[in-house]
């Protein structure tokens, strides 16, 4: 098929999933056209089946807010028409789904039918989408899409709870490329960070409030009171300054390293003993899946779709949001010599069920089913 993929090109779960999906589809022989405002971060190589179309946003003194959605819809019309696409797949409802629905209307008026598939990722539903300033448009564009998927059962449930959605939503979970995300031998790196055999705890996120990075630091602080440990924080975002201050306040600044936005996160995960994800909300938790694929057990909250991924007592533990005491107790249990190896092995086994080789054919079937109905 010729597939147009629309996503946020920056670091962040939905953009990563969309880009990896496009790469996988291209590998399977599909022609994939990315339509975004800048080159997706993980699309930095040549492949004969991959194309990139930049959305040009025309500014004008009258516009306090340049109308990105219109520029995006216009670009979709252009690409569908001239590249003769068979299907548009948009990731993250706002504003991609409504722009796609508009592009489809325009194309229809010119005698071109193009099916629109929308994938809901999380905050487009649970945080931003349900806000009254967006809700009517999100509801409309979900109902108007030709196919809708959600990345977890919990997100599907939340969508029905918060929006008047009349159509079926198919759950297609996120996936992982196990050839990229696997435990690599990086002993020199481990020795440099943990010279005295300390346990290595890792957290990766966009440092937004919803990730509760405060909890990460407080759990680590308590862990380090019992076992010698180091914390690596990967990513960046609005909470970073505050988190640095908290580390100083708790007197653990020397045990914590801020690595910023890393491309090769699998190298860090390869030397980790434990991954922390205490999020307030998390529709899926792709970062935890990346850790598990690198044989790292997960201590997480039980928010949203996380329990569908991190199996309590098997691949790590899940606790109520904010229950730092319990998360610390569980972290120490996992890190003990007696249990760590078993949790690591279980994490990998669970990650294998989300292998891209398993999930990609589900998307391919979904596309052909949707295309057949249009
Ligand atoms: O919150 C983020 O990390 C970014 C956000 C996004 O759309 O880029 O992530 C959401 O989508 C990811 C990919 O499907 C999921 O793994 C994350 O759980 C989800 N984030 C939230 O629900 C908070």
From TrEMBL:
Q: What is the lineage of its organism?
A: Bacteria, Pseudomonadati, Bacteroidota, Cytophagia, Cytophagales
Q: Which protein, by its recorded name, is this?
A: N-acetyl-alpha-D-glucosaminyl L-malate synthase BshA
| The Glycosyl transferase family domain, residue ranges | 190-347
Organism the protein comes from: Roseivirga misakiensis
Could you give a GO molecular-function term held by this entry?
glycosyltransferase activity
Any one GO BP annotation for this protein: bacillithiol biosynthetic process
Question: What Gene3D superfamilies does this protein map onto?
Answer: Glycogen Phosphorylase B (3.40.50.2000)
Domain Glycosyltransferase subfamily 4-like N-terminal: residue ranges:
11-179
């Amino acid at each position: 098929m010729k597939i147009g993929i629309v996503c946020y090109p920056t670091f962040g779960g939905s953009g990563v999933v969309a880009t990896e999906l496009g790469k996988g589809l291209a590998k399977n022989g599909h022609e994939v056209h990315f339509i975004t405002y800048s080159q997706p971060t993980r699309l930095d190589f040549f492949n004969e089946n991959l194309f990139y179309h930049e959305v040009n946003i025309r500014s004008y003194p009258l516009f306090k807010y340049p109308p990105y959605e219109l520029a995006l819809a216009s670009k979709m019309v252009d690409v569908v028409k001239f590249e003769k696409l068979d299907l548009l797949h948009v990731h993250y409802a706002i504003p991609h789904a409504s722009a796609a629905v508009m592009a489809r209307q325009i194309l229809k008026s010119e005698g071109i039918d193009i099916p629109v598939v929308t994938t809901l990722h999380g905050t487009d539903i649970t945080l931003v989408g349900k806000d009254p300033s967006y809700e009517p448009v999100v509801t409309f564009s979900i109902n108007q899409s030709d196919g809708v998927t959600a990345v977890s059962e919990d997100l599907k449930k939340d969508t029905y709870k918060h929006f008047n959605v009349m159509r079926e939503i198919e759950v297609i979970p996120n996936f992982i490329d196990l050839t990229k995300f696997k435990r690599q031998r990086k002993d020199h790196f481990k020795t440099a960070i943990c010279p005295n055999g300390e346990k290595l705890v890792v957290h990766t996120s966009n440092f937004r409030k919803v990730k509760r990075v405060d909890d990460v630091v407080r759990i680590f602080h308590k862990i380090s009171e019992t076992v010698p440990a180091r914390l690596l924080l990967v990513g960046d975002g609005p909470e970073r300054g505050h988190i640095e201050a908290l580390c100083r306040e708790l007197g653990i600044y020397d045990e914590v390293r801020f690595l910023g936005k890393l491309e090769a996160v699998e190298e860090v995960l390869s030397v980790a003993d434990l991954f922390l994800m205490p999020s307030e909300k998390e529709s899926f938790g792709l970062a935890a899946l990346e850790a598990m694929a690198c044989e790292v057990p997960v201590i997480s909250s039980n928010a949203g779709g996380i329990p569908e991924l991190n199996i309590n007592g098997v691949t790590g533990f899940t606790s109520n949001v904010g229950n730092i005491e319990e998360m610390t107790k569980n972290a120490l249990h996992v890190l003990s010599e007696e249990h760590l190896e078993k949790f690591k092995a279980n994490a990998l086994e669970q990650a294998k069920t989300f292998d891209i080789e398993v999930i990609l054919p589900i998307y391919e079937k979904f596309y052909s089913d949707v295309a057949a109905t249009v």
